[in-house]
Amino acid sequence: MTVTAQPPAAEVGAARRRKEDARLITGQTMWTENIVLPGMLHLAILRSPLGHARITHIDTAPALREPNVVAAFSGRDVADVQGSLPCAWPVTADLVMPAHPPLAVDEVCHTGEAVAAVVARDRASAVDALTAIEVDYEPLPVVLDMEEALADGAALVHSDQATNKAYTWVFDSAEAGTGAAVGEAAAGAEVVIRRRYRQQRLIPAFMEPRSVVADATGDQVTLWSATQIPHVLRFLLAVGTGTPEHRVRVVAPDVGGGFGGKLQVTPEEIITYLASKRAGRPVKYTETRSDSLLSAHHGRDMIQDVELSARRDGTVLGLSVRLTANMGAYLGLVGPGVPILGAFMYNAIYKFPAYRFECTGVFTNTTFTDAYRGAGRPEATYAIERVMDELAVEVGLDPLEVRRRNWIRHEEFPFTTVAGLTYDSGNYEAATDRAKQLLGYDELRREQETRRASGDPVQLGIGVSTYTEMCGLAPSRVLGSLRYGAGGWESASIRVLPTGKVEVVTGSSPHGQGHETAWSQIVADQLGVAFEDVEVLHGDTRTAYKGMDTYGSRSLAVGGFALVNACKKVIDKAKPVAAHLLECDVSDVEFTDGAFRVRGTPDGGRSLADCALAVFAAHDLPEGVEPTLDADDVYDPVNFSFPHGTHLCAVEVDTETGKVSIRAYVAVDDVGRVVNPMIVEGQVHGGVAQGVAQALFEEAVYDADGNLLTGTFVDYTPPSSADLPDIVSDRTETPAPDHPLGTKGVGEAGTIASTPAVVNAVVDALRPYGVDDVPMPCTPERVWQAIRNGGGRS
Amino acid sequence: MTRIQLHVDGVRYDDDVEPRTLLVHHLRDRIGKVGTVVGCDTSNCGACTVLLDGVSVKSCSVLAAQADGKAVTTIEGLAGPGGQLHPVQRAFHERHALQCGFCTPGMIMASVSLLADNPDPSDAEIREGLEGNLCRCTGYQNIVRAVHDAAASLADGTGAAHPQVPAQAVPEQREVAV
Predict the structure, then answer these.
(1) Digit-coded pLDDT (tens) for B32-48
(2) I need a surface site. Which of A8, A612, A693, B11 has the fewest CB within 10 A?
(3) Helix B87-94 and helix B104-117: axis angle, to 10°?
(4) What DSSP character marks residue A434?
(5) A289/B101 touch (CB, cutoff 8 Å), yes or no
(6) Is A34 an 8 Å CB contact of chain B?
(7) For residue B74, which residues of chain A lie inside 8 Å, CB to CB?
(8) How far, rounded to the nearest angstrom, does the alpha carbon of residue B167 sit from its chain's CA centroid?
(9) Does A532 touch chain B (CB under 8 A)?
């Protein structure tokens, strides 16, 4: 085929409709729960009804007498083979790490902890037979409150541990050499703001309940799981159970959302694997929603004590953060590291001369916590953006003005912060100007004044959040220095088929993000092939054998880098082949506008497909040319990327009922260059929705005995369509200087930005009532109480 | 066991079912209609929504035996002969009204039913009408847009979604074969 000089339209930057949709809108999807294997059995799990207890007696034999039951076992039956669930992030050398058996053996430490399993011919029989299992519990004291847990003489969360403290981790800018000592900075301060904020416990609540199918019947163990991390799971399943890694295959089929909630090696995955081994048959387990809310890992749950010192003109001098983070009963896969991800973000976009951060991880008799969308960064952003508003009030400045006086100006990038990170690029001025314009900020401020003056029972509040975050997890050297157990690289493989079609294998593992579409767009541009001619493969360790999976807004920032590198290698491999076809010297071949051409000769080029067919035949390749165009790349990032943006929220608060209504919401995000603006906008919409949910609706609540009171969607109240507003989203574009596509990452931005924007708006509305905080979620009752406690109109 | 007969997506199925069997489990486990999914156990999420004699129901809230003699339409039976997408399916695709897609079968079926009741709904009517279907990915905004588009194309009989995307949000329209 001869190609002409007509350049193909650029795919990157186009709002391509998603390839994924075809199966999802027609019900042709391969969810794990849809998998049926010959001879497959079904697993049901008996869970602890108590928050803390000793198991004094357990007998699963009666379950075996129930109809259709093939196997039943407790933790004691598998104690020697089940291992302990892994924590990959021991953040300190003296971290306390209690054993975490998939099935409890002698002691249960939170309600919902798995204690026994039944395997039966069908799901209903398995569930029915659970009632036949005999368990006697001797109740132990339940520890729920973090501060009580840390007090001298506190009851113990684990009776075999001497303490409820998991770790204390400290960053001090004076010790690190990245800034001054906070104490000295604060000594000269004219203003000191001290606040305590509570990050309530949340539940990721992905829509697809977790499901796992294990087939351990042959030499090869195959595990299908609704997971974000098939590669990490393969490695840890092998290490944890002693199964040789080359005999373990993990598949993440279509996965219905994660938000960090499926970034875990779960008890259920191990139990299902053990069940398949014991029964000698494939076994499936799918959780109910109630099981999921109770036992899948939770998120957030921190107490933040923040002290900010400043001058009267609003210039910040020092920031000190004491964080108390609830680990729950066990350490999750990356649980201890979640607050540490936030440690580098409390100073945010501001030029603090001094910073100190201290985090204490605490055990309680609750479901263990771990990553939830943003993982440490929403918490940090919330605290700093809330306290910057308090500073604005204290020094009598507009909240945007106090930020402007302290933020990194766009000409100052790259900028090394007091936390030691080097922010790559940004333009806070541009994003903020755009957001003000879209909201009509100045007009709304005038309306606010009018309403305040007239004593309107419905008050207007305007909330500000000028956030940044760190994406592209992560440079492996940084992870190593933070004691994380793995690297942060990502892989890509390109296979050029004889007909010129292209298979792309990515080590990232999407679960709603649209990789198949975005990766196709990138490859189409890089290789000069049609979008439709690219197939993106992922999530099966047999095909995508090398990967670090999807979380932390890393797929495009890291995996996209590897993808571009692999494409470049393909082009390099094709050049000698093209030279042969063009009958010219390889030094005269250039790849421009999607084709190989003789330099300076726009017509008469050869396509990648021509080269692919030539290496397939391989009849007369030049000496030394390998007959393939395939290429791999594994990329380890040199830095994080730092998206940022300005979110503005206007709320109306009915001071008589406490009801908060979002009147307008503007999100201006700068995520670098974008591959697909439609997908980026969708990520912002969904991210903002989850952040608003934390601000106004959601909280996981335990009663005094450790029972989860919010164990169904009736009680946990994730927002419906009727609860959320339309938002206005726009972008500014400051390219990532270190990335070949200039992209930064967008998966978590909306969630990180929106929570403080909403709560700042609620508090702003109520300033005249003496209110300077409303605990989240800002329900009508809490708003109403805050107004009553605020001392009325000032 | 109870003998029941269902017409599901145009095919007749005769089965013996336990009285306690939910319609959704019967559809998935016996009939093999796994396009319809289960997202909760308290009838809150709506992921299992199907049409029962043309009206949307949460199939986790109906016993299979109650559906005896009725016609069920699932997400798998919504497209026309030859696989031509229903206007609601097409609009969900065009408007990026899905991400992970787990809620999508129920959301689409609920939208079809909503538009049958109210062919020209307002934003607020769409949001109220879909209140029983939870989505964790999209923030619902593009779902509302998609239902508007589907309403327009159903009204003018084109069966095609109207491209009314703001230039800022979606700079370039391209077709993907689905």
Answers:
(1) 999 999 999 999 999 99
(2) B11
(3) 120
(4) H
(5) no
(6) yes
(7) 27
(8) 29
(9) yes
The minimum CA-CA distance between A26 and chain B, rounded to whole Å, is 6
Chain B: nearest CA to A289, how far in angstroms? 5
- The pLDDT of residue A6 is 56
**Residue in this structure with the two tokens 């809330």, named with its chain if needed:** A386
A117-134, pLDDT tens digit by residue? 999 999 999 999 999 999
Q: Name B42's Cβ contacts closer than 8 Å, sequence gap at least 6.
A: A289, A290, A712, A713, A714
CA of B16, closest CA in chain A: separation in Å? 16
pTM: 0.96
Q: Does A67 touch chain B (CB under 8 A)?
A: no
pLDDT at A621: 94
User: Is the pLDDT at A3 greater than 80, yes or no?
Assistant: no
Task: Tell whether B1 is within 8 A of chain A (Cβ).
Answer: no
Average pLDDT of the segment spanning A268-294: 98
Q: Does B137 touch chain A (CB under 8 A)?
A: yes
Question: Cα A355 vs. chain centroid, distance in angstroms?
Answer: 26
Q: What is the mean pLDDT of residues A23-38?
A: 98
Contacts of B174 in chain A (CB under 8 A): 14-17
- Kindly state the tokens that stand for A530: 């049609």
Check CB contact under 8 Å for B40 and A712. yes
- Contacting residues of B for A259, CB less than 8 Å apart: 136
Q: Which residue in B8, B25, B74, B99 has the most chain A C-beta atoms within 10 A of its own C-beta, making it the best mutation to test that interface?
A: B99
* B67 half-sphere exposure, CB direction, 13 A CA radius: 36
Residue among A23, A512, A727 minimizing CB distance to B100: A512
Q: What is the mean pLDDT of residues A430-456?
A: 98
Question: What pLDDT shows up at residue A793?
Answer: 46
Residue A791: the pLDDT is 65
Inter-chain touch B102–A678, beta carbons under 8 Å: no
- Which residues of chain B have a CB within 8 Å of the CB of A372? none
In this predicted structure, the answer to whether residue B159 has a pLDDT above a threshold of 50 is: yes
DSSP-assigned letters across all residues of A190-251: SEEEEEEEEEEEE----SSPPEEEEE-SSSSEEEEE--S-HHHHHHHHHHHHT--GGGEEEE
Whether the pLDDT of residue B166 is over 70: the answer is no
CB contact under 8 A, B134 and A207: yes
Q: Is B131 part of the contact surface with chain A (CB cutoff 8 Å)?
A: yes
Could you report the per-residue pLDDT of A194-234, keeping only the tens digit for each? 999 999 999 999 999 999 999 999 889 999 999 999 999 99
Q: Is the dihedral of CA A44, A49, A55, A56 positive or negative?
A: negative
B93 and A727 in contact by Cβ < 8 A? no
Provide the pLDDT confidence category of residue A602 given band limits of 50, 70 and 90: confident
Burial class (CB in 10 A: 0-12, 13-18, 19+), A656: exposed
Taking 80 as the threshold, does the pLDDT of residue B158 lie above it? Answer: no
Q: Does residue B103 have a pLDDT over 80?
A: yes
Q: Do B105 and A205 touch (CB under 8 A)?
A: no
In chain B, which residues have their Cβ closer than 8 Å to the Cβ of A708? none
Contact A722, A658 (CB under 8 A): no
Q: Is residue A474 within 8 Å of residue A488, measured between CB atoms? A: yes
- Percent of chain A surpassing pLDDT 90: 96
Residue A459: how many other CB atoms lie within 10 Å: 22
- What is the model's pLDDT at position A411? 97
Token representation of residue A331: 């350490």
Nearest CA in chain A to B78: A26
Q: What are phi and psi of A646, to 5 degrees?
A: -125, 120
Q: Is A97 exposed, middle or buried (0-12, 13-18, 19+ CB in 10 A)?
A: middle
The answer to whether the Cβ–Cβ distance between B178 and A21 falls below 8 Å is yes
Contact A571, A591 (CB under 8 A): yes
For residue A8, the model assigns a pLDDT of 65
Q: Compute the average pLDDT of residues A316-334.
A: 98
